[in-house]
Amino acid sequence: MARLVLKFGGTSVGDIARIQNVARHVKREVDAGHHVAVVVSAMAGKTNELVGWCRDASPIHDAREYDAVVASGEQVTAGLLAITLQKMGINARSWQGWQIPIRTDGAHGAARIQEIDASEIVRRFEAEEQVAVIAGFQGIAPDNRIATLGRGGSDTSAVAVAAAIAADRCDIYTDVDGVYTTDPRIEPKARRMARISFEEMLEMASLGAKVLQVRSVELAMVHKVRTFVRSSFEDPDAPGMGDFDNPPGTLICDEDEIVEQQVVTGIAYSRDEAQISLRRVEDRPGVAAAIFGPLADAGVNVDMIVQNISESGDATDMTFTVPAGDLSKATAILEKAKAEMRYDALQSESGLTKVSVIGIGMRSHTGVAATAFKALAGRGINIKAITTSEIKISILIDGDYTELAVRALHGVYGLDKV
Ligand code: ADP
Ligand code: ASP
Ligand code: MG
């Protein structure tokens, strides 16, 4: 007998028929004798609707009330799934974050889980074979109010619960049947990977592959949670679906569990990036701190930073990216502090995309970046900025070329070939 966590995303619980299908996945594992905790998302589109309502009520609003509103989507699905399971004769009950409790920090809207007391859930596993249906995306903050974990946060709820109950496996069920070499919606030739290392998955997720929330991958890595990404749309009773060691899907695992390591494993992209350039910034010590300090204080996430060396030696150009949603906030801060920051002009551009090439094999191979640049040049795509790390190259381009760039990079490293 094992302990399992099964997480179902928004599309997988999009209507009652789909919730019934989810219940069949749960039943399969219960019938096999396993103890099961299920983590559910809000029904597809629900969270966006709730976020929209908060904005309509007031563009600037209390983050604690935002959490009270947006956490409700998951509460509905947890109750509906518990009802459906009960109807099938399975002992089940729903749990909201505060009832368990799942304790978070106080960062309403983007809280981090700090502690989960899973003892009552485990007691009910043992005493009455009860399935725990847990509302994802939410917990309780130190101020005793509901907190949400940031968009996509149900993945993190699932992995955290898996760590807390020492689960043998955490299955993330979604609308694709695994992690692909790139987003299959953009490149139909993308291939499903049998395995991907924690490090690579972390980069893929941080660089835009939204199949897993970044924090969930971090937690899986730290707590060594055996995590699979798999499809909820397959027939729950098809052969192999209940395979304990090798369920269909992609395993996120340690690097040394991967036998044949490719140089490049995947391509990720993130749309809605914006670029800001400050022209003729005074070239003196402390200038970067003067610019980026106030942006950080305002919670603006600055990403790619390029500083040119000036010809004259007394002034330089500073260019960096921010999420498009933060552009007006960032420019307002920079314009207000123009005198202290000492620059001549501010230019900005939105509608950009960051495409990234990811692979652990880059550590020991040269020429990976040059290949990317050549592939983009061959399609006439202009590069606006580049950043690299040990296992990734990120390139900023015009958003109109997103699909073209992703497919070009996917092809040039042979990711479409078996
Ligand atoms: P859920 O609602 O189940 O949490 P998400 O929409 O958050 O699902 O994540 C699944 C989506 O992630 C897929 O439909 C797919 O379009 C997208 N995606 C992006 N990159 C990848 C990738 N490399 N592999 C698989 N899916 C990806
Ligand atoms: N419902 C939340 C969202 O849409 C959390 C999740 O689905 O993971 O972001
Ligand atoms: Mg998701």
TrEMBL record:
Belongs to the aspartokinase family. Keywords: Amino-acid biosynthesis, ATP-binding, Kinase, Lysine biosynthesis, Nucleotide-binding, Transferase. PROSITE patterns: ACT (PS51671), ASPARTOKINASE (PS00324). This is Aspartokinase. It catalyses: L-aspartate + ATP = 4-phospho-L-aspartate + ADP. One of its GO terms (molecular function) is aspartate kinase activity. Residues 276-360 form the ACT domain. The lineage of its organism: Bacteria, Pseudomonadati, Pseudomonadota, Alphaproteobacteria, Hyphomicrobiales. Pathway: Amino-acid biosynthesis; L-lysine biosynthesis via DAP pathway; (S)-tetrahydrodipicolinate from L-aspartate: step 1/4; Amino-acid biosynthesis; L-methionine biosynthesis via de novo pathway; L-homoserine from L-aspartate: step 1/3; Amino-acid biosynthesis; L-threonine biosynthesis; L-threonine from L-aspartate: step 1/5. PANTHER family: ASPARTATE KINASE, ASPARTOKINASE. Its EC number is 2.7.2.4. Pfam families: AA_kinase, ACT, ACT_9. It comes from Jiella sonneratiae.
